[in-house]
Design a protein that fits this description.
Blueprint: E1 2-10, E2 13-19, H1 35-45, E3 62-69, H2 76-81, E4 89-96, E5 102-106, E6 109-111, H3 113-123, H4 138-149, H5 152-199, H6 205-217, H7 219-234, H8 240-257, H9 262-288, H10 293-312, H11 318-384
Antiparallel strand pairs: 1-2, 1-3, 3-4, 4-5, 5-6
Helix pairs in contact: 4-11, 5-11, 6-10, 7-9, 8-9
Length: 388
């Protein structure tokens, strides 16, 4: 209920503060004394639109503030939904600025007019001449029944469960839509992933394969080059080794006659030893070389496969393809995760559905029991007034 009302700079009122005690309060006065201004001010903090012509001094802002005791109104959920701090002693303030702008606050939290209206409808029912009472309003009727039946807590529990049930329903719908979209992509993603897995690519493999391909694709040219090199080194008549051996022998003879040429002999001898080692290595390399058509085909196929995948996925390296493969695996697994999540949510949904039906039946039963006594009580009052 309202416990106080303050109005500043509105219509005839410069500054007024009214306290409302428990019970029934009547405000009386002559026509034009300002009774309706109090109601208008109260309407403003309940969400009515402001009229700039009602501001008393246009150089100052108009402030209307009301204090309400709402402990028994079960408004905690409404405050939570609107992200407003709840307090049993709630203060609603409306400010109308000289610029024409209007601001509203509930417990110092800024709110819009729709929120004020929503709360105002739960706090105060303003009736005037030629205005229909809210007795025909179903929501008002249910609030009245709940107040008399003491089912406010049952209603709050039902509303809270219903809110979570609706949220869960939306989540299920979102997951189902996500699954529908995922199904469209699932087969394609699985195909792309399996294709990359079958390629069996390793980091750095492309460079190794390219080097190997250069060798095996130029096998004959390399072999011919090694044969020619071997011939030039090892030919008995004109080969480098034969000629260098003759040079070494000549220098050896010179050292017998002139020891000062021994150093030249040593250098030629060292070169001859190195060239013999080189010749032997070339011969071993030639012996190890063997044309392998199967290997050529394997390397060619693997390179073609990798290059096609690079082009297909707009990648520049095997490392990027491996990253794409890992991302595809996550998408494939995510599809399975969606099914698991849907199953889990569906189980919770089924439990909540049973729970909310039980709460609804409980609330309905208690409301139904409260109606006959209320009906009898109202009939007694109407009989007493001669209106039955």
């Amino acid at each position: 209920m309202i416990t106080s009302l303050s109005i500043k700079n509105y219509a005839l009122i410069e500054d007024i503060h009214v306290d409302f005690g428990e019970g029934f309060t009547i405000i009386t006065g002559e026509t034009g004394s300002g009774k309706s201004i109090l109601i208008e001010g109260l309407s403003l903090i309940l969400g009515s639109r402001a009229d700039m012509s009602s501001i008393r001094d246009m150089s100052k802002k108009c402030i209307i503030e009301g204090q309400f005791f709402i402990k028994n109104y079960n408004l905690e959920q409404l405050f939570e939904e609107q992200d407003i701090d709840y307090d049993h002693e709630t203060i609603i303030r409306r400010e109308i600025l000289p610029s024409g702008k209007s601001r509203a606050f509930i417990n110092d939290s800024p709110v819009n007019l729709s929120t004020l209206n929503m709360l105002g409808e739960r706090l105060i029912d303003v009736h005037s001449q030629h205005q229909n009472l809210k007795l025909a309003d179903k929501e008002f009727q249910f609030r009245l029944i709940d107040a008399l039946a003491g089912t406010e807590q049952d209603l709050a529990q039902y509303q809270s469960t219903l809110a979570s049930f609706r949220t869960l329903k939306k989540e299920l719908k979102r997951l189902q839509e996500l699954k529908t979209e995922a199904i469209k992509e699932q087969d394609y993603n699985a195909f792309l992933y399996n294709e990359l897995v079958e390629a069996d690519m390793q980091r750095g493999e492309l460079e190794v394969l390219e080097d190997e391909y250069k060798i095996i694709s130029n096998f004959e040219a390399i072999k011919e080059g090694l044969d020619e090199t071997s011939h030039r080194l090892g030919n008995e008549e004109m080969g480098i080794l034969s000629n260098l051996s003759s040079v070494r022998n000549t220098l050896k003879n010179l050292t017998d006659m002139s020891p000062e040429h021994y150093q030249l002999f040593e250098r030629v001898n060292s070169a001859l030893i190195e060239l013999k080692d080189l010749f032997n290595d070339i011969e071993r390399t030639k012996d190890d070389m063997e044309a392998d058509p199967d290997r050529i085909q394997k390397v060619t196929r693997k390179l073609n496969m990798i290059n096609n995948l690079l082009l297909k996925h707009s990648a520049n390296s095997i490392e990027e393809l491996i990253g794409i493969r890992e991302d595809l695996l996550k998408k494939v697994n995510a599809f399975e995760d969606i099914d698991d999540e849907i199953l889990r949510k569906q189980n919770v949904y089924n439990i909540k559905e049973v729970e909310i039906n039980e709460l609804a039946m409980k609330l309905h039963s208690r409301r139904k029991k409260a109606i006959p006594p209320l009906k009898d009580h109202l009939l007694d009052i109407l009989n007493g007034m001669g209106m039955a």
